[in-house]
Amino acid sequence: MRIRKANDLKWSDVTPKALYVNRRQFLAVAPFMAAAAAEALSPDEARAQGGLPKLDAKKSPLSTTEPMTPYKSVTTYNNYYEFGIDKGDPAEYAKSLKTRPWTVTIDGAVKAGGKFAIDDLIKPYQLEERIYRHRCVEGWSIVVPWIGFPLGDLLKKVQPTEKAKFVEFTTLNDASQMPGVRRPVLNWPYTEGLRLDEAMHRLTLLTVGLYGEVLPNQNGAPLRLVVPWKYGFKSIKSIVRIRLVESQPHTAWNDSAPQEYGFYSNVNPTVDHPRWSQATERRIGDFFKRKTLMFNGYDEVASMYGGMDLKKNF
């Protein structure tokens, strides 16, 4: 028998602390966890659990039919480094974030940009509920009923010019509300970017809610991006600026660790992160791992990358 040393283990091998309460009980009930979660999280039973203001949204045919991840897991197990590096930090410390008043600046290579109050920005659009798979680069995944509207609808309204080839996004950078930015974990503010065709794709969602309610602060209130075929860190939170540019923009994680976090960051089971395999994932609430799907199962986006070397352009 080979006994694995601590330094042989990958982070993706570690079960979330919240699930590892009692080892013997956990192992005994593990085969039944997925079935129980599926029964408990039917769409009619999984909404409006946070006590936040409700949102009306039409159901989208683009939704997956997979069981949704528990609301508590989605809202207490987060990556949001502006509020701390531990998974529980955002839920604890994001209460300090003030989401009203809030403005979003849209500028760069557009004809009709400006600075917009968040409610004025959202008002023209019919909100949709889209149940998307979400894959984290660390090896865990969730299924979330996001509420929002296509980013492409907003971009059409601001009228990109011929120079617009990419879209750059910027998160709020306010140390008085976000204790994590006092530490040089990243070069603040957090920035992300998409190619214009990716931003215009019908699956790319500007998101204002989840589970029938407005976004909790720790999940990126009041406005975040959701790009379901890319790893989770591409779905930038608490957006204050959307800028259309001619050249590929800098992004926070790509600048910090370019060997680990590429600009594209498409979910790809054949390209491993230097510290984690991407071939499998563990859905929160499940015991067994499952195979990771190319583009997270959103095959319709594949045509955007025809002819590209997806190992080089990771």
Can you give a write-up of this model?
- The chain is an alpha+beta fold and 314 residues long.
- It has one domain (6-305): Sulfite Oxidase, Chain A, domain 2 (Alpha-Beta Complex).
- The chain has helices at 23-40, 71-76, 89-93, 118-122, 151-158, 196-200, 252-256, and strands spanning 58-59, 103-108, 114-117, 128-135, 140-150, 166-171, 191-195, 205-210, 213-214, 224-226, 239-245, 280-283, 290-291.
- Strands 1, 4, 5, 8, 9, 10, 12 and 13 form an eight-stranded mixed beta sheet that branches. Strands 3-2-11-6-7 form a five-stranded mixed beta sheet.
- A hairpin with a 5-residue loop joins strand 2 (103-108) and strand 3 (114-117).
- The longest helix has 18 residues, at 23-40.
- It is globular.
Low confidence ranges: 1-44
Number of strands: 13
The gyration radius over C-alpha positions equals: 19 Å
Order of helices and strands: HEHHEEHEEHEEHEEEEHEE
Q: What's the overall average pLDDT, rounded?
A: 89
* DSSP helix fraction: 10-25%
Rough shape?
globular
CATH level 3 topology? Sulfite Oxidase, Chain A, domain 2
Structural class: alpha+beta
Helix count from the secondary structure assignment: 7
Q: What oligomeric state do these chains adopt? A: single chain
Distance between the termini: 37 Å
| Count of all domains | 1
Q: CATH superfamily assignment?
A: Oxidoreductase, molybdopterin-binding domain
